[in-house]
Design goal:
The protein has six helices and six strands, in the order βααβαβββααβα. It is α+β, with helices and mostly antiparallel strands and about 140 residues long. The radius of gyration is 14 Å and the shape is globular.
Length: about 140
Amino acid sequence: MAHYLFKSEPDVFGWDDLVAKGEAGEEWDGVRNYQARNVMRGMEVGDTGFFYHSRSGLEIVGTVEIIAAAHPDSTDDSGKWECVDIRAADPLLRPISLDQIKADPRLADMVLVKNSRLSVQPVTDAQWDVVMSLAEA
């Protein structure tokens, strides 16, 4: 199983919005970055991810599950863009801020630290474990 991080502005589509979608989840549409699209192409049903509030909040607030592999993005008429479907899994007991992530040397190579603009990004098993341990501490 692989891990990822999905960034969203909470005032546009936040954690509570995804939770409200229930088991049906939501198409992670509208991504218009080739690198992020290519990351989604590698996702498999059952993979997991972090849900990160960008712009305001700047924190990981929950975990998600990929419920549909890459498919054409319904908001794209060009046929170039793909997306996956995700559903909310669990809120983190303690949200983990970007400042906490940057301050932890074990997370220095996390894509969120190195390329904070990428909206969909991979997370290593070790990084996943560190964030989850911080959230449970």
